[in-house]
Write a structure and sequence with these properties.
This protein is α/β, with parallel strands linked by helices and about 600 residues long. The protein has 23 helices and nine strands. Strand 3 and strand 4 form a beta hairpin.
């Protein structure tokens, strides 16, 4: 039997992809509901290999979805809930139009609800999968926790974001899971290690929200993502709290949350309550004060002895890092941002407090003599205690990234701070700019070299005038000695020529002497390779290897080479900028030193 021949675009890429309009027709949903369903289920448009075949010969660029993805969405039960929402809206509108308030009240009491629990379980089969995908979730929820009630962001949604994010911060404090911190223009970067997975998120700076005249950001789409992430983070917090024998929702030992009505009205009051809660320990379900830590002496999965030793050293460093601020008491001034510092200090075992008259939740006063560090962010301070260090906030962040308590001399009040280096830079990556300060952290021997170089440069600057005078004298002596040496060389050459004329040429003795010299064994000379020839040969071999690249991979290779060139150019520009800045600073110091010398000389006279 002869099989029927398929028509064009009924097989291959033409049958594998459907446009967004076709997908909406298949699911019988509006654009708003279709977009919401795709976000909740994690379905995104696909890029075909051949767009003309996938679009069935149509021109232009269309949004294409894989046909199997749309067929997967057809079995989703929340489609019926989305349709019920549409029917519910029509019924409410009809009852409102005819002023049937009894029917309207009955419909509002029985409105449909959208449950996303099964979607979270479907997208994340295991708990580790959910933690691995926690970066975007935390970043978006921390962003929405700073928003007031906007047009497409309900107030109860932003309030729930605040609650869940604070619960997560409490877990990080209780588990001492924080590893890296960094301050940037976007906000505070945090990195924690949870169940063996690295989680990185951003907390924006707490500024007052300024409404924008143009709606450049689609808050409605972001709100759909937040709707899914709220359910996801609720599940994760529940599991994480029970893994540490903590109550969920969290209970604070000897702490009352205060007036809820006031916290809903006054945003500053709510923020103060939230930061005060971070300074209180959580109540546990069992009597054990702390969970038993796992033994790190044996690593059965690692066979290489070098890697085993590295893993042991890393485990010891992390163990010391968890108790970095133990035994230290910090007092925060009113001008310092409290939330990040309270969170970081509590994560590493330190005690922290602030002025109880300015904010609630203080545990000790400024007059406490046991305070070891006071964090100040102003140029000077009138009243100071001798028993404590007065430091700037950057010391806390840099000490965490260095995994040790750094010297406080560079971070005193009014001092020019050292550069705040990012800990999220890959040390093994090539074509990247490494500042001198970071090189000194990696290799402490460079600090001594820098100090010696600076002292020698200062000595050179001080003795520059004397060197100029000595140089002129030296040049005159060199000219005189050069003339004298030249006359002596000419005299010796003339004597050698006279001796050569006196000796007989062509004698038998001279021939025998020459033969004897040829027969004698002499030391060989080392053949010196030409470095330029070696470079030329390497370049030629590199070009031959480039020609051997397959045709389908050449475009990718060119893009990789362009990226490498751009990175190398950026590194060169940054080094040049650093050299210019250092030269300007050197000239400035030299000018100040000269002015000081001149003023000292005038005062003496």
């Amino acid at each position: 039997m002869v099989s029927k021949r398929k028509k064009k675009y009924q097989s291959g890429e033409g049958a594998q992809y459907v446009s967004r309009k076709q997908a909406m027709r298949m699911l019988q949903l509006s654009l708003k509901d279709f977009r919401r369903l795709c976000i909740l289920k994690g379905i995104y448009p696909r890029e075909p290999r051949n767009r003309k075949r996938a679009q069935k010969g149509a021109s232009g660029i269309k949004t294409l979805y894989h046909k199997k993805d749309i067929q997967f969405l057809m079995h989703e039960p929340i489609i019926w809930t989305l349709r019920d929402y549409k029917i519910f809206g029509k019924k409410i509108g009809r009852a409102k139009a005819v002023k049937d308030f009894e029917t309207m009240k009955r419909l509002l009491d029985n409105h449909p609800t959208l449950k996303l629990d099964h979607i979270v379980k479907e997208r994340y089969p295991t708990f580790i999968d959910a933690i691995r995908d926690l970066d975007d979730c935390l970043t978006l929820l921390f962003l929405f926790s700073t928003f007031p009630s906007l047009r497409h962001v309900p107030r109860d949604q932003s309030a729930l974001c605040r609650r869940l994010t604070v619960e997560f911060m409490h877990y990080v404090i209780a588990a001492k899971a924080l590893r890296k911190v960094f301050i940037s223009i976007k906000g505070y970067y945090y990195q924690a290690e949870i169940k063996g997975q690295t989680v990185t998120w951003i907390v924006p700076h707490h500024f007052s929200f300024q409404p924008q005249s143009k709606e450049e950001v689609d808050f409605k789409v972001l709100s759909i993502f937040v709707e899914f992430y709220l359910i996801m983070l609720g599940f994760i917090n529940f599991r994480l709290y029970h893994s540490l024998n903590l109550y969920y929702p969290p209970k604070f030992a000897g702490y009352s949350a205060g007036d809820c009505d006031k916290s809903m009205v006054d945003e500053d009051y709510y923020v103060s309550e939230r930061i005060a809660a971070l300074n209180v320990t959580l109540a546990r379900t069992s009597n054990n004060a702390e969970e038993e830590e796992a033994e790190v002496d044996q690593f059965p999965m690692i066979e290489d002895p070098e890697k085993l030793e590295e893993a042991k050293l890393e485990a010891e460093k992390i163990k010391r890092l968890k108790s970095l601020f133990e035994g230290l008491k910090f007092f925060i001034n009113r001008e310092v941002p409290r939330e990040p510092l309270v969170f970081i200090i509590r994560c590493f075992g330190g005690e922290v407090s602030w002025d109880k008259l300015s904010f609630v939740g203080a545990t000790f006063d400024e007059s406490d003599e046991t305070i070891t560090h006071q964090i100040v962010d102003r140029p000077s301070l009138e009243k100071q205690y001798i028993s404590r260090y007065y430091i700037q906030p950057q010391w806390v962040f840099d000490s965490v990234n260095a995994r040790q308590l750094l010297p406080v001399e560079k971070y005193f009040v009014g001092a020019i701070l050292p550069p705040h280096l990012s800990p999220f830079v890959d040390a093994e990556r090539e074509e990247q700019y490494i500042p001198p300060e970071e090189q000194q952290l990696r290799d402490p021997s460079l600090i001594e070299q820098k100090d010696s170089g600076e002292s020698s440069s200062d000595d050179e600057d001080n003795a520059s005038d004397e060197d100029a005078v000595d140089k002129n004298k030296h040049n005159s002596k060199e000219k005189h000695s050069h003339k004298k040496g030249k006359s002596e060389v000419d005299k010796s050459e003339a004597e050698a020529d006279n001796k050569a004329d006196d000796t007989p040429s062509g004698g038998i003795e001279s021939q025998r002497e020459e033969k004897r010299k040829r027969m004698s064994v002499t030391a060989g000379t080392v053949s010196v390779e030409d470095p330029m020839e070696k470079v030329r040969q390497n370049r030629q071999e590199y070009r031959l290897r480039e020609k051997m690249i397959a045709k389908k991979h050449r475009k990718l290779y060119r893009s990789m080479m362009e990226g490498r060139t751009e990175r190398a150019k950026e590194v060169w520009l940054l080094r040049k900028k650093r050299q210019r800045i250092e030269a300007e600073e050197k000239q400035h110091r030299k000018r100040e030193r000269r002015e000081a010398q001149v003023s000292a000389a005038t005062s003496v006279t």
